[in-house]
Amino acid sequence: MSGVVLLRRQHLRYGKMKLLELYRRRHAEDHSISAWKIQCIIHASGLYYEPEKQARINRKRSVARSRKKITELKRKPVSGFLLCVDTVVRYWHGQKRYILTAIDRHTKVAFARMYTTHSSASARDFLHRLYILLDGKIENVQTDNGSEFHRHFETACQDLGLEHYWSRVKTPKDNAVNERFNRTLQDEFRFSRNCRDGLQV
Description:
single chain; Nucleotidyltransferase, domain 5; 2 domains; 7 helices
């Protein structure tokens, strides 16, 4: 282990494969070291070229591992069991607007409201309105990994006793029902020209 640490200190920019090659050149008799072990030693010793940047990456990875993926949820054909939530970005009168949408996975009851900001505070407001609209009959909520579904939105889920499940990255089929509703909303409703901030349908 000390030999790997020494090499890492000498070559902070090198990745695990290059370090493995150097190590084997210097310690040909040692066949116990692998690229995976070198990565573990780097992590344990904290010897990163950009430690602050790597710390941020490690924190994000830790949070990602703790998130409940939608593939873990066994779905039930029950009203309110799973509400799928998403965001549609549109330009209206030259300004950016954000339409938060939700649809019941089973009954297909849908709700949408337009906001001027793309924030977790807006998503929290939307979730509270949705909760009131459905008389609190919500068990689980599904979202993608957008920033609006972090912080205040997650706190609201906890306050309301809702389980928050996440779609897999770049996997729109995980939320196909909501994607279809979003397309209908954009293709049909916007042509009515009956839009204003705070509009809900």
